[in-house]
Amino acid sequence: MGHSLKFRMTRVPTYRFQEARAVVLERILALRDMPRTEMTGLIDAAGRVLMEEVRADRDQPPLPRSMRDGFAVRSSDLPGSLRVVGEVRAGGVFAGEVGAGEAVEIMTGAPVPRGADQIVMVEHTAREGGRVVTEKPGKPGGFINPAGSECRANEVLVPAGTLMDFVHVAALASAGATQARVYRRPRVAILSTGDEVVPVEQSPTEVQVRNSNAWALAAQVRRAGGEPVILPSVSDNEEATRRAIESGLTHDLLLLSGGVSAGKYDFVEPALAALGAEFYFDRVLIQPGQPLVFGRARGRFFFGLPGNPSSTMATFELFGRAAVQLLAGASGAPLPLLSARLAHDFRHKPGLTRFLPARLAGDGATAALVPWAGSSDIAAMARANSWLVASDEREHYAAGDWIQVIPR
Ligand code: AMP
Ligand code: MG
Q1: 44 Ramachandran zone, left/alpha/beta (phi>0; psi -120 to 50)
Q2: Span 338-407: which CATH code?
């Protein structure tokens, strides 16, 4: 950790990437107000954070259950030739008991008849009239799910604070829950700054740019489980910036784009400071996104994201996404990382962790950098599907080396 003297006399820490992420997670977990709650149906539960844990309503499975199509037998009879005394299908029950030298034909998911302690797969048997023959040795418990082996009645299936996906929806459904109590989505204000920034509907002059950041951030916020609120963009004027920030701070989180560098017309930090903001950091040793700002004002967290489109998008994914998830009530917000092999040699200057647009190919096995013209290059980002993560401690990677990747 170092210190930044980007605009103020007070020293604000400068962190390495992982340190800065830890600061974001710690501060939000310590200071967040939990959102109010509402009920959601199963169809809308994925992407929401569960407020009340969901428990199993019965032992799963309630009875010992066959894991295969085949024959229910006594393991002590194997291998051998057994008399087939009946059949049980999924949803049915075999009324009798499997005696010595006997077998009951059984289907996957059917309850195992009394007396039997093993299932022999149908593929490992031969029918001979009313008998079934198998070479398989006895194996007590083979291909049987004992009662309660998956979960016990009243056991927690999905803990409170889980950001749910389709598997959690299955767990809810399996427990008979048609609704779940979830947290409301945090409302996330998006405020773009810059004299050159014009609305997407407007035709820009050659010195203007369309406000792509607000829309990228809105999509990212929504994916993270937040409700985006795009505010009108603001010009590079300290007073106007301060007023716009004030209205942004009435939301659960404020995302600012642009105006956080060391330029003469970068007014975001002075405007925040004038509103009494506490800055947790205002520089991170990453690229893109080095001037990233994180703090709290008027009881709300804010991020000042650098305005270059790739910086804005990357810093949101690296920091803002976790913030939205935590403000949505999630108990944690891990960074989705995977490893791939580099398709080519790669060299960079250590000291900054770099996030470079890359393409994962071969079902994610290899990653290759996408050539780009720098942080403003949305076209290159659109050709990429991920970011390579180049360590701040390592200068050279060879083709075939493992490297971390953040998929989009
Ligand atoms: P800044 O971080 O304010 O210095 O902005 C850096 C560069 O990012 C600017 O020169 C713009 O070209 C670009 N930029 C800033 N804001 C936006 C925006 N809302 N949408 C698209 N590009 C932007
Ligand atoms: Mg600017």
Answers
A1: alpha
A2: 2.40.340.10
